[in-house]
Amino acid sequence: MTGTQGPDTGLVRLDGSEGEGGGQILRTALSLSLITGRPFHLTRLRERREPPGLRPQHLACVRGAEALCGGGASAEGATVGASELAFTPAPVRAGDYLLEVGTAGSTPLLFQCLVYPLALAGGGRLTLRGGTHLPHSPSFHYVATVWQPVAHAYGLPVLLSLVHAGFYPEGAGELVAEVGPPQEPPRLVELPARGMLREVRVSSFTGGLPFTIAERQSRAAVGALRERGILAEADNRPLAVTRSVGTVTFVLAQFEHTIAGFTALGERG
Q: Global pTM?
């Protein structure tokens, strides 16, 4: 169960300027706090970013963590621009949650923050609205085709679906995650190397733009791979959108022992 008292329940003090100095330390801290029940105090939040401090997309993660606790958690300093945050969790409740990240906020990053504590609490459904394909964030297709099968292999049953794609800056996308309770994980995992490359597949998508762009993107990606001696299959697909428009190319590489994914967002020009 998450949010319970463990052997060590003291306050965890964190320096937000450590490492890459961005928002990941906040998302990780929120997830671990919900799982362990330990409060944390985070200072110098996003000190190496411009602008520094909490931004709306980070605040959405705090509000999401509070929601999973049924309103029982407390977050002191949870305002846009704040440079420190004190968070005290409460027990996480299994169930269904609808959360808005905002126009340019990343739904995959919010998903990664909340999925583990929700699963450990018994599971439920996360419906997340905002951006699904954004710069500096894993895309929906990366999470669904790379993260999801690995999570299944480790005993975490999650089923992801894309309702609408959301591109920068409008967002307006929606993803749904059906999260089950954890199953028995493997006793031993050995991955000394990724092994031989077995297959590469290029997927090119357009949302609200001419389909010829998807065809042009996939031809360029397949050609670039061929120049490096890698043969790839390609498929082109439309993406359902509401207000935002955009394109994305996703390359999935299947190795002998693992998989890897690479995302490129389309740009004007």
A: 0.92
